[in-house]
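Worked Example 4.2. Consider the chain below.
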Amino acid sequence: MKKIMHIVQSSGGVERYIQMFLRHIDTTKYENILVCSHDYNVEEYEDLVVAFENVDMIREINFYYDLKAIWVVHRLIIKYKPDIIYCHSSKAGAIGRAADFFIKNKVVYNPHGWAFSMECGKLKKMFYCIVERFLAGCTDRIIAISNYEKQIALENHICPSDKIQVIYNGIDVLEYEKNKINFNVTRADLNIPDSSYLIGFVGRLTKQKAPDILLRAAVQIKKKIPQAQFLMVGDGEERERLVQMIEKFNLQDCVHITGWVDNPMEYITLFDQAMLLSRWEGFGLVLAEYMWAGKPIVATNVNAIPNLIANGVNGLLVEKDNVKEIVKASLQIFYNNELANLFGNNGKRIVRERFSVDRVVREHEKLFEIINID
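Applying the procedure from the previous section yields the following C-alpha cells:
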C-alpha cells in the first residue's frame, strides 16, 4: 500500500477539495497522511487519514515562520516516509517541496491557482515566478486545475509542458444529495423574508473575490428589485471593511454575512441567483456547486471561469469590477424565468458530465501509478 502525504495551508475551497478527495480515493491502495495548518481540525479527518499533523503555516510570506515550518515538515517526512508527497496551494507547495529537497520523494504539486496570477506588484509576481521555476525542478508532476492554469504556467516558463497535467476540479454530487435531507437552515434563520429575491455569494471575503463590487452592484440592483436580498457566505480579512460599506450604502436591511459555515451547499440552496465576481480565479470550485444546485449564475470573465461558465449557456459572464454589467446581467436573469431555468438545468448537466469528484480521483490515481513507475 502506498502512503501519500498531503501538505496543505489554505482553507476554504482547498479544504473542501481535500475532504472530497480523501473520501473517494481507493483506501485499499493508498494510505493518506494530512499535514496542514491550524485552520484544519483533526475531528473532521478521523475517518479519512491514518495520521494528522498540524503545522504552524501562515498565508503571508514570513521567512522566520516559513523556515520553521519547512523544518517541521522535513521532520514529518522523515518520520512517515511517504511514497508520494502531494502539496496543495502555493504556500504549502513551497514549504512541502523545500522540506523534501534533500530527501527526494516523488512529489506532486497542485497550486489551486498560481500565486503569480494574482493582482499584485511586478516585483512580487517576479518573485513568485522565480520560486515556482526553481521548485518545479524538484517536482515530478504539477496539476493544473484548468486549461488556463496550464497555459499561464507555460507563458511564464514555469516548467516544460510534459510536467503539467490538467485535472479539472470536481464536486461530490452524491455526498451533496445524501446530505440534502439534513439541510435545515432557512431564510427565516438568517432574517431574510421568504418573499425576497435572494442573490448569493460563497467564498472568502478577500480582494480576490471582489465582495466590495457585489455591494456596489447591490445598491443598483436594490433600486430595480425592491425585494432583493444579498447573502455572503464566508469570512475573511475584508469583512470589517465590508461592514463599513454596508452601513455607508444603507444596506443593513438587505445584506447578510454568515461568517464561516460547515456546509456552504446548505446556504446555496436558498439562493435565487448566484454570483462569483472574482478579480482572478484558478478554477472557482463554488461555480460547480452553484451549478449542481441549479442556480443561474453571474460570474466574471477572468482566467479559468470561462472554462466552467459558457456565456448564455449556464450563466452570464461580465467584465471584472464592472458594476454596470453586473447589474444588467442580474436583472436579465431576474426578469426572464425561462432563461434562469435554462441556466440551472444546463449547469446540472455540465457538472454530471465534466465535474464529478470520482473523475478527479481516478485521474489522480492513474497519475500516482505512473510517477511510481518513472
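The chain has a mean pLDDT of 93. The CA atoms of residues 137 and 159 lie 8 Å apart. Compare this with Example 4.1 before moving on.
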